């Protein structure tokens, strides 16, 4: 079997231009490649896939379409984040569909809607899945929505960034004046609409989901341990927490998995995550972020159909951590997702790898 492997590799010389101060002057993020993967992750995935056959490396840059066409692969393992724009995560799957190549993961429509935080929240609202109240700011003309009738505090986010780009502590606003000023900064910096949503004060979880249709299931849920963040930090998994404070040297224990919560809370969080997974039409695997409101109701923050899969446990990558709690090695996680996708597209099991007892 020939398996294509689509990825974006992070340049070695890219460094984020940020500082570690809490809620200080906003500095635009210059790390345009934070969503892309490093060499260690790419090598680990390639090694895991090699048990199925030949792995054809296909870096998702401008010559990708012709390389995919000429590679004549049987299946494409896609973890490419794309280059730019609100539909960037859909580019590789759309090209694969154009050439008739079956692939791992969600289709272009789901990837585009999931990346656009506002469009995703509109779907959740239509399906009756709890999500924080919100308004959408496209320009200065829309700023009146922040002054009239919106409750505070709010949290502000660029509409279609990933990996917590643009999610800084300074985005927490307690008044309309703060919100308007910060929104103007974000509009100018990211040149895309800004989501303003009511701030949810409860605990935050992330749920790794595997499977399709009624067979989709949640791995052990993760609770974020915000008490591990620096003193005075806002309890969010923003850019500072993910990329500045959570370093190997800091050795933060940010992920509690399985989450030490009641059975009722665990069931509610998992059920809400799976409902969001189905609402957006996710396939094979995705990670769903959930946060509780003041009354303990689980609200969907966002869905990540291209979940991060960094192999190093020190990196606190959520999907591998949840898989480990379920008894899977890193290789078994990659192979299980591949098997799930192959079964979806072919109706058959991949038999080249002996089963290890991992649910697939």
Q: How would you summarize this macromolecular structure in one to three sentences?
A:
The chain is of the alpha+beta class. Helices cover 32% and strands 17% of the residues.
What would you say this structure looks like, in words?
The protein has 360 residues and is an alpha+beta fold. It folds into two domains: 2-132 and 200-346, ATP-grasp fold, B domain (D-amino Acid Aminotransferase, Chain A, domain 1), CATH 3.30.470; 133-199, Dna Ligase, domain 1 (2-Layer Sandwich), CATH 3.30.1490. It is built from eleven helices and 13 strands. Strands 8, 9, 10, 11, 12 and 13 form a six-stranded antiparallel sheet that branches. Strands 4-7-5-6 form a four-stranded antiparallel sheet, with helices on one face. Strands 2-1-3 form a three-stranded parallel sheet, with helices on both faces. The radius of gyration is 20 Å and the shape is globular.
Q: Could you name the CATH homologous superfamily of the largest domain?
A: ATP-grasp fold, B domain
> Topology as H/E string?
EHEHEHHHEHEEHEEEEHEHEEHH
Major beta-sheet overview: 6 strands, antiparallel
Distance between the termini: 19 Å
Task: Give keywords.
360 residues; 17% strand; D-amino Acid Aminotransferase, Chain A, domain 1; alpha+beta; 2 domains
């Amino acid at each position: 079997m020939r398996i294509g492997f689509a990825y974006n590799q992070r340049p070695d010389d890219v460094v984020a231009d940020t500082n570690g101060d809490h809620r200080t002057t906003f500095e635009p993020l210059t790390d345009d490649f934070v969503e892309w993967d490093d060499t260690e992750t790419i090598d680990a995935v390639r090694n895991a896939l090699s048990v199925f056959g030949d792995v054809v490396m296909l870096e998702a840059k401008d010559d990708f379409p012709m390389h995919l066409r000429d590679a004549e692969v049987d299946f494409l393992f896609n973890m490419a984040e794309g280059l730019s724009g609100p539909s960037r995560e859909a580019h590789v799957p759309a090209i694969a569909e154009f050439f008739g190549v079956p692939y791992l993961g969600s289709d272009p429509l789901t990837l585009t809607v999931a990346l656009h935080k506002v469009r995703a929240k509109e779907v959740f609202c239509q399906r009756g899945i709890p999500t924080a109240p919100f308004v959408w700011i496209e320009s200065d003309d829309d700023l009146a929505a922040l002054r009239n009738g919106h409750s505070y505090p709010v949290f502000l986010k660029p509409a279609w960034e990933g990996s917590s780009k643009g999610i800084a502590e300074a985005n927490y606003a307690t008044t309309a004046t703060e919100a308007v000023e910060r929104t103007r900064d974000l509009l100018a910096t990211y040149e895309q609409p800004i989501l303003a949503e009511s701030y949810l004060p409860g605990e935050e979880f992330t749920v790794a989901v595997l499977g399709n249709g009624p067979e989709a299931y949640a791995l052990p849920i993760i609770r974020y341990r915000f008490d591990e963040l620096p003193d005075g930090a806002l309890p969010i998994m923003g850019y500072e927490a993910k990329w500045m404070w959570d370093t190997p040297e800091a050795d933060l224990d940010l992920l509690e998995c399985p989450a030490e919560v009641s059975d009722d809370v665990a069931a509610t969080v998992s059920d809400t995550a799976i409902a969001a997974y189905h609402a957006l039409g996710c396939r094979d695997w995705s990670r769903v972020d959930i946060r509780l409101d003041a009354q303990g109701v689980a609200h969907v923050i966002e869905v990540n159909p291209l979940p991060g899969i960094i192999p190093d446990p020190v990196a606190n990558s959520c999907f591998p951590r949840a898989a480990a709690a379920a008894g899977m090695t890193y290789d078994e996680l990659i192979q299980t997702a591949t098997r799930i996708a192959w079964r979806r597209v072919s109706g058959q099991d991949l038999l080249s790898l002996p089963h290890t007892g991992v649910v697939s």
